[in-house]
Design brief:
Blueprint lengths: L13 H20 L3 E6 L4 E5 L4 E7 L5 E7 L3 H7 L9 E7 L2 E14 L5 E9 L8 E2 L15 E5 L2 H18 L24 E3 L13 E5 L2 E2 H12 L2 E2 L2 E2 L18 E3 L1 E2 L11 E3 L3 E2 L2 E5 L6 E5 L25 E2 L7 E9 L5 E5 L6 H18 L7 H12 L6 E5 L1 H7 L6 E3 L9 H13 L3 E8 L20 E6 L2 E18 L5 E7 L6 H18 L4
Length: about 550
């Protein structure tokens, strides 16, 4: 009987493996500390220069808001001279492009300044605003297919089972109106290609179509507008669906925005991405012992009540099973920063606010059809009784007398109470608040205003943290980082042991100068509330917009 022979076993060279691991860590550190790639383009998206000699830079990404970029350049730097020399530039506009860890920031020049300090230092400061500002300058017409002088019907309405589709469709038809020059002169009237131009390869902005590998799971909703800006028309819907606007310019070397795309370099590709997954299952918190709870938000049948349901843990995504892969799946957030003496959190500010009133009251005018129904009933009844005495036409006169009495008294107001909030707050809590914008009760706008009022007073947790990039999580996109704007991440507070808070990244700032390496500053949760004066001005603008829609202004 022969003795079995063992198969040879491949030996592991531990020294080589260790050297490879060390080299990998060095490469990652070099990539993390490498300065961002910054480029300047003219107004026609032609590359003018690559910035290499900046004094300092501060770039801000804001969640669904317009961030700014401030770059200081030496006054004798050739690019600074080009920016200052506006008269001799072919275009007065300039475009900034910043690439760092897969993330891209692009925006238009807002202002160029020349500074001279009291110590004799001179430098040029260029201020740019993010491309998201285009949402404030693209208006959603009542009918984008007709000229401004003929707008029928009175209101644009786009309903869909998935609000993302409705928003992107509204954006597309209005970009089509601007780019195709249906009823307006094109930029160059003598160019025949500019008239009725539906060739997207010549457009400056396009809307990315929904692809099969990125199904739309956003909740149902409706987009309505009467010459509102795209930002105003979609702001509440985007917030409610927890979507993230992503305008990304297409440049040489980039992969196609979608298979078969034929667009020009410099084109803005608009997309709404779901970095939250709050309707399909994600995490809103957990403990260090039980891990993150897998939950989803369920919107009740009344369209207003939101509840958070805990569901069984899903299988771990394939992303976490791939060695060396970077990123975070929103269904199972992987990024958690822990606060402690030896932590990547270098500075932080934690804030928590309990929920506000448990009830919302709104209205003012009766629901459609109620006043009319009462009026018709009075006229008919009075006419019937009057016919018995030969006065069958007395009905309108009786209605005119009674109208001030019954007008807007039936079905004109409504109240909604959040029982779940009341139970969570306890017996002693605030009771009611008024819902701004709920002018006519039991209409779609009333429902939206009631829910908005309840949403504005929800329980909030806000934390601003400055972390050491790469310890261990990296900021970046497209395989270069674990998380970015809108990503749901976790963090702990030393004074609240055992608890993990999970919120979306709402703001990112990338700052560096000649003495310090690029450093990400991250804000998690709700950003600071806006200035009350600005809020009052916004409400005044909404009121003036209502008067404009009614034809008063």
């Amino acid at each position: 009987m022969s003795t079995p022979v063992a198969e040879p076993v491949d030996l592991i060279d531990f020294d080589a493996e260790f050297e490879g691991l060390v080299q990998q860590l060095k490469d990652e550190a070099e990539a993390r500390l490498a300065p961002p790639e910054m480029s300047i383009y003219d107004g026609d998206a032609n590359l003018r220069a690559i910035i290499r000699n900046e004094i300092s830079a501060n770039i801000a990404w804001l969640h669904n808001e317009v961030g700014t970029a401030v770059i200081d350049l030496p006054v004798d730097y050739y690019l600074a001279e080009w920016l200052i020399d506006v008269d001799n530039r072919e275009t007065t506009q300039a475009i900034l492009r910043v690439d760092k860890d897969g993330a891209r920031w692009t925006g238009l020049l807002e202002e160029i300044q020349i500074h001279h300090t009291d110590n004799g230092t001179r430098f040029v400061r260029a201020i740019f605003k993010h491309d998201l500002q285009h949402l404030h300058h693209i208006f959603a017409w009542s009918n984008p297919f007709l000229p401004a002088e003929l707008q029928l019907p009175r209101l644009w309405m786009c309903f869909s089972q998935h609000i993302r589709w409705a928003i992107k469709t509204t954006m597309l038809v209005n970009i089509m109106r601007l780019e195709s020059s249906l009823w307006m002169l094109p930029d160059d009237p003598l160019d025949p290609a500019g008239w009725f131009n539906f060739n997207q390869s010549t457009w400056t902005m396009v809307v990315k179509p929904d692809l099969p590998d990125n199904p739309d799971r956003s909740p149902a909703g409706v987009i309505h507008s009467r010459f509102k800006s795209m930002y105003e028309a979609t702001k509440r819907a985007v917030q409610d669906a927890q979507l993230t606007w992503e305008p990304r310019r297409y440049f040489p070397g980039d992969p196609e925005p979608w298979p078969g795309a034929q667009i020009a370099y410099g084109t803005i590709v608009w997309d709404l991405v779901d970095n939250s997954a709050f309707t399909t299952g994600t995490s809103f918190g957990g403990t260090l012992f039980d891990g993150l709870w897998h939950e989803l938000v369920n919107i009740g049948g009344d369209g207003k009540t939101e509840t958070t349901e805990t569901v069984p843990d899903p299988n771990m995504p394939d992303l976490y099973k791939t060695a060396g892969a970077l990123g975070s799946d929103p269904s199972v957030p992987a990024v958690v920063w822990r606060d402690g003496e030896h932590s990547a959190i270098q500075a932080s500010m934690f804030s928590h606010r309990p929920a506000g009133p448990v009830g919302v009251v709104g209205g003012g005018h009766s629901a459609p059809g109620i006043n009319e129904g009462i009026s018709a009933t009075i006229i008919s009844l009075a006419g019937f009784l009057g016919s018995m005495i030969g006065q069958s036409q007395i009905g309108p006169a009786i209605d005119a007398v009674l109208r001030p009495i019954y007008m807007d008294t039936v079905g004109a107001f409504g109240k909604w109470k959040n029982i779940i909030r009341a139970q969570r707050l306890g017996k002693h809590h605030l009771h009611e608040r008024w819902a701004d914008g709920a002018d006519r009760a039991y209409t779609l706008s009333w429902v939206l205003a009631m829910r908005t009022a309840m949403f504005a007073t929800r329980e909030t947790t806000r934390c601003t943290i400055t972390v050491a990039d790469g310890a261990p999580w990296r900021i970046g996109q497209r395989g270069f980082g674990h998380c970015f704007l809108g990503t749901r991440v976790g963090f702990t507070i030393r004074e609240l042991p055992g608890r993990i808070f999970v919120e979306q990244i709402s703001e990112l700032r990338l700052a560096w100068d000649r003495k310090t390496a690029p450093l990400w500053k991250i804000q998690i949760g709700q950003r600071e509330p806006e200035d009350p004066v600005l809020k009052a001005f916004e409400i005044l603008q909404d009121f003036l917009g209502m008067l404009r829609d009614l034809g008063v202004l």
